[in-house]
Specification:
The chain is an alpha+beta fold. 29% of the residues lie in helices and 16% in strands. The longest helix is centred in the N-terminal third of the chain and has 28 residues, at 18-45. It starts with a helix and ends in a 33-residue tail after the last helix.
């Protein structure tokens, strides 16, 4: 006991400030603890701090940029599809729609991704009801022609002679539709030629471009339009649709003359056989049949023109497809 006291006294003598230093340090620690405790109490009574998002990690930043790029591409793709014609285009009177089709581009995306395109250069309009050349004449409804009574823009595909197909599109009016008769091939001509060759004799001469789609059944073969396209919506379908054509080159005609002539292959339907309800672009080499007499009656004036005898049909009448003996192959 005495030894310990003596040892402590000796340390004090050797370092007289040691005890005071230890006491001072202890006092400073106590003050620091008091300040920290007061700060914690103040924080607990103040509003919660606003959280800020931490900067993304390097990988996350890359993913964010990638997502932004995909979004941008999505909207740019939509912009590219502005050429596609929607419901408002098809929702018009039959004769007017038949003429409006001229110059538009029919697009077909095949199962393997191949895209085929052709400009519409010839159509036929069939007025439902009293039009005896129509499948829906007299308001006749069948399972076969149901698409003709659906909303404008509905595709009507029917078979003739047991092997050939024809593509039509409904318009305003009861049992109304427009027959697509001829196209000018714009893209995928080699594929069209192969598709047409399936129904031709082996060893036949290669078809010229103007022979690929110059007929209602020919264009269905060339664009691989199947029977089950019947009742599809041309305004929204992912495999076939219609686009606005953009004239190219200085010599392009923005408003070519429209010739109105009698329809093809309906001679047995009396007075309706002479009605000028076939429409085609004058001077276009891809038209199936040229009618010189009708062309002589075409009014020559600026802008889109039609023959005088056809102006009476600029009405609200409906259109429907022709009889089964109209196809020329």
């Amino acid at each position: 006991m005495f030894y310990n006291k003596a040892k402590a006294s000796l340390r004090l003598i050797l370092n007289p400030t040691g005890a005071r230093y230890v006491r001072a340090m202890s006092s400073r620690k106590r003050k620091l603890r008091s300040v920290l405790k007061a700060g914690e109490n103040a924080d607990s009574s103040s509003p919660a701090p606003v959280k800020t998002a931490a900067p993304p990690a390097e990988g996350a930043a890359e993913r964010t940029r990638s997502t932004e790029t995909l979004t941008s591409q999505y909207f740019s793709n939509d912009h590219k599809c502005d050429a596609r014609l929607g419901e408002e285009f098809f929702n018009q009177p039959c004769v007017r729609l038949a003429k409006a089709f001229l110059g538009k581009v029919l697009v077909r995306r095949c199962a393997d991704g191949t895209v085929l395109k052709g400009r519409v250069v010839e159509t036929e309009a069939y007025l439902g009801g009293e039009d005896r050349a129509s499948h829906s004449a007299g308001g006749r409804r069948t399972e076969r022609n149901a698409a003709m009574f659906m909303k404008p823009g509905t595709i009507y595909v029917y078979q003739i002679y047991g092997i050939y197909l024809c593509m039509n599109v409904s318009s305003q009016g009861e049992g109304a539709a427009v027959l697509l008769r001829s196209l000018e091939p714009l893209q995928g001509q080699a594929v069209m030629r192969d598709l047409r060759a399936v129904r031709r004799r082996e060893g036949s001469r290669p078809l010229k471009d103007k022979e690929l789609c110059n007929g209602p059944s020919k264009l269905c073969q060339a664009l691989d339009i199947p029977r089950d396209f019947d009742q599809r919506d041309l305004a929204t379908d992912a495999e076939v649709w219609l686009e606005q054509d953009v004239p190219e080159g200085e010599g392009a005609q923005e408003h070519p003359e429209v010739v109105c002539a009698p329809r093809i292959g309906i001679e047995s339907h009396g007075e309706w056989a002479a009605k000028p309800l076939r429409f085609y672009l004058r001077g276009n080499p891809y038209v199936s049949v040229v009618n010189r007499q009708a062309e002589g009656q075409t009014q020559r004036q600026p802008g889109p023109t039609v023959s005088r005898s056809a102006q009476q049909w600029e009405t609200e009448g409906s259109i429907t497809v022709e009889n089964e003996d109209h196809v020329e192959n």
